[in-house]
């Protein structure tokens, strides 16, 4: 498989790492949209939120546990936004499940 995020998770492409364990990798976004902007991805390939099912959903719960831990470590007490895109019309640019975490600025609603 020629997946950019799978290559990052495997260590084949370097990232500015925020966190890593056996299940997930978190790294700073290369085009940040907020003073704090990092992504959290499962190391196992899941193409999009549409592919989450009973067999792989535990990784999503773990991702949110990791996000909460990182947010606490980064002192994001004023809040943060977690975004995932699904499919072309949803704005998904990399076909591997990933969650953007944005913080340290006021985030408008609704988003673009």
From TrEMBL:
It comes from the Bacteria. A motif (Histidine triad motif) lies at residues 96-100. PROSITE patterns: HIT_1, HIT_2. It holds the Pfam family HIT. InterPro entries: Histidine_triad_CS (IPR019808), Histidine_triad_HIT (IPR001310), HIT-like (IPR011146), HIT-like_sf (IPR036265). CDD domains: PKCI_related. Residues 4-112 form the HIT domain. This is Histidine triad nucleotide-binding protein.
């Amino acid at each position: 498989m020629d997946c950019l995020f799978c290559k990052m998770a495997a260590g084949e492409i370097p990232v500015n790492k925020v966190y890593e364990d056996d299940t997930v990798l978190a790294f700073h976004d290369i085009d940040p949209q907020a003073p704090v902007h990092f992504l959290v991805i499962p190391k196992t390939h899941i193409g999009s939120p549409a592919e989450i099912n009973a067999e792989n959903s535990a990784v999503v719960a773990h991702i949110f546990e990791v996000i909460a831990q990182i947010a606490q470590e980064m002192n994001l007490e004023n809040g943060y936004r977690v975004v995932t895109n699904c499919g072309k019309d949803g704005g998904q640019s990399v076909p591997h499940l990933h969650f953007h975490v944005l913080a340290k600025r006021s985030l408008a609603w609704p988003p673009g």
